[in-house]
């Protein structure tokens, strides 16, 4: 029923209001064409400015992409004898992204990196890691975003905070001459390659990346490598060089990641098959889908029975799920009133308990409640293709839900809520194995939280709350030191 009604108005043909460009080979990426049939229509339309910027970006990527003449010229800068002027004349500069941590973190940091590429007219190339290319389709037409395997800089794992080409270290060692970065090895200016370390636990010098003078310096560097596990977009909104363009591209700030996700991340055919099979088997006929994402970071603080009671307290108190009717044990359910509960979790137990509750007792109001959980992998196994495919499929299934309950701090949940365009209820973190009060709160917006936000402004501007500078960047409900767009 839901599928039929969702396909009625041929939304599949409008490419998310111009967010997506036509002209891809349909069979190579079915989700690109079919996801609008399954997802709820978005309340948010991409602005004309964002659409134009994306089309310009796609042209740039085609012109500068791997193995083009321009790419080859700029690549020579990474080898002895490369000519800087020749490379500059191409107008191509690059941003290489390398993955770190779980899939949710990867998607957040990749979307942030792409937005930074849009703002700085750089071409985004990705280190595919073990399995990224089997999870996602190519997002840009007639080119590739995969960093070629013959890229001369190898072993990205060796790039870390202490690396001589790390921006924070270059700043610390004052390798800036007339505001131009000097290569610590050759003494050449500008440096051809700089590493940006933007993961949680970074130093103040690393975080100077977000400041205006540093952006002017980095503009001159042809190759930037980024490692981040963060959604660092809120910090870009606090930068005076970018804020005007960002505001024009995203007049609705609570929908930045929603648009970026729907533009960039199209499940591969294999994953799309998993998503649609599951949807059609278990969810399609429900009047309403309630997604509950349960992530346990610390089993001591969040033992099973506490989390289970917390989930029930949240969903029943907020009337997201119907209570049980103890006074009419033989009540007959109304087949037209169906609610499907989709649980995503690494663990078993939650599903059985909630399912049994609605089996042993009728749901209030005559609702038919069905409870489903696609997998229970037991532990995080990032980098394993089959495991990551399930995680990515489940994030997408969460995105089909009408109501979403997520776990505080979990980036996995952030992806589901953004794909679906749904403002979530957040299960707050239990302290010392007791249910928090309230058990859950409604978030301000569906935007992810930038967990490791810098503590203060750029040089010389210490003091004051960085979460109170502009009305659309505020502190997060699930991570008090974090920042988010609202
Ligand atoms: P976070 O750690 O909650 O912020 O989310 P990440 O996605 O970055 O890392 C957690 C990883 O654990 C996921 O990417 C999956 O590999 C795995 N995982 C956690 N929860 C689930 C779940 O509900 N379903 C599946 N299939 N995998 C999960």
Automatic annotation (TrEMBL):
Broad class of enzyme this protein falls into: transferase
Pfam family, one: XG_FTase
Annotated keywords: Cell wall biogenesis/degradation, Glycoprotein, Glycosyltransferase, Golgi apparatus, Membrane, Transferase, Transmembrane, Transmembrane helix
Superkingdom per UniProt: Eukaryota
Classification via InterPro entries: XG_FTase
Membrane topology: Single-pass type II membrane protein
Record GO terms (molecular function): galactoside 2-alpha-L-fucosyltransferase activity
Chief place of localization: Golgi
Subcellular compartments: Golgi apparatus, Golgi stack membrane
This protein's GO CC annotations: Golgi cisterna membrane
Keyword NAD: no
EC numbers, comma separated: 2.4.1.-
GO biological process, one term: cell wall organization
Family (UniProt): Belongs to the glycosyltransferase 37 family.
Described purpose of this protein according to its UniProt entry: May be involved in cell wall biosynthesis.
Designated name of the protein: Fucosyltransferase
UniProt organism field: Spirodela intermedia
Lineage: Eukaryota, Viridiplantae, Streptophyta, Embryophyta, Tracheophyta
């Amino acid at each position: 029923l839901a599928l039929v009604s969702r396909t009625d108005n041929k939304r599949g043909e409008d490419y998310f209001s111009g967010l997506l460009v036509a002209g891809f080979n349909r069979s190579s990426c079915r989700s690109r064409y079919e996801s609008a049939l399954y997802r709820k229509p978005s309340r948010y339309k991409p602005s004309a400015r964002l659409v134009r910027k994306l089309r310009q970006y796609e042209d740039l990527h085609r012109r500068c992409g791997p193995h083009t003449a321009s790419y080859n010229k700029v690549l020579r800068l990474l080898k002895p004898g490369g000519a800087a002027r020749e490379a500059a004349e191409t107008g191509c500069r690059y941003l290489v992204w390398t993955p770190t941590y779980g899939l949710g973190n990867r998607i957040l940091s990749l979307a942030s990196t792409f937005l930074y590429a849009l703002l700085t007219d750089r071409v985004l190339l990705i280190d595919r890691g073990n399995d990224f290319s089997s999870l996602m389709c190519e997002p840009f037409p007639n080119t590739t975003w995969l960093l070629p395997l013959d890229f001369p800089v190898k072993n990205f794992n060796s790039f870390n905070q202490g690396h001589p080409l790390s921006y924070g270290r270059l700043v610390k060692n004052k390798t800036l001459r007339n505001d131009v970065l000097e290569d610590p090895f050759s003494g050449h200016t500008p440096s051809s390659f700089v590493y940006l370390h933007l993961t949680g636990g970074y130093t103040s010098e690393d975080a100077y990346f977000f400041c205006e003078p540093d952006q002017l310096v980095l503009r001159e560097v042809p190759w930037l490598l980024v490692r981040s596990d963060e959604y660092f977009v809120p910090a870009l909104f606090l930068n005076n060089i970018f804020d005007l363009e960002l505001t024009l591209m995203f007049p609705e700030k609570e929908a930045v990641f929603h648009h970026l996700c729907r533009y960039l991340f199209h499940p591969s055919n294999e994953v799309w098959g998993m998503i649609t099979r599951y949807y059609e088997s278990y969810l399609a006929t429900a009047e309403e889908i309630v997604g509950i994402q349960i992530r346990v970071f610390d089993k001591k603080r969040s033992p099973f029975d506490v989390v289970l009671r917390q989930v029930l307290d949240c969903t029943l108190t907020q009337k997201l799920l119907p209570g049980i009717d103890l006074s009419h044990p033989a009540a007959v359910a109304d087949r037209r009133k169906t609610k499907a509960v989709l649980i995503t979790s690494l663990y078993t137990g939650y599903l059985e308990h909630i399912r049994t509750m609605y089996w042993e007792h009728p749901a209030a109001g005559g609702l038919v409640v069905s409870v489903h959980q696609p997998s229970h992998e037991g532990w995080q196994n990032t980098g394993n293709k089959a495991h990551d495919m399930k995680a990515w499929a489940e994030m997408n299934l969460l995105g089909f839900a009408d109501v979403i309950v997520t776990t505080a701090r979990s980036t996995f949940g952030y992806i589901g809520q953004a794909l679906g365009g749904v403002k979530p209820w957040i299960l707050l973190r239990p302290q010392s194995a007791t249910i928090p009060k309230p058990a859950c709160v409604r978030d301000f917006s569906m935007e992810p939280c930038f967990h490791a936000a810098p503590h203060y402004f750029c040089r010389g501007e210490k003091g004051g709350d960085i979460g109170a500078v502009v009305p659309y960047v505020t502190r997060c409900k699930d991570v008090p030191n974090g920042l988010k767009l609202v």
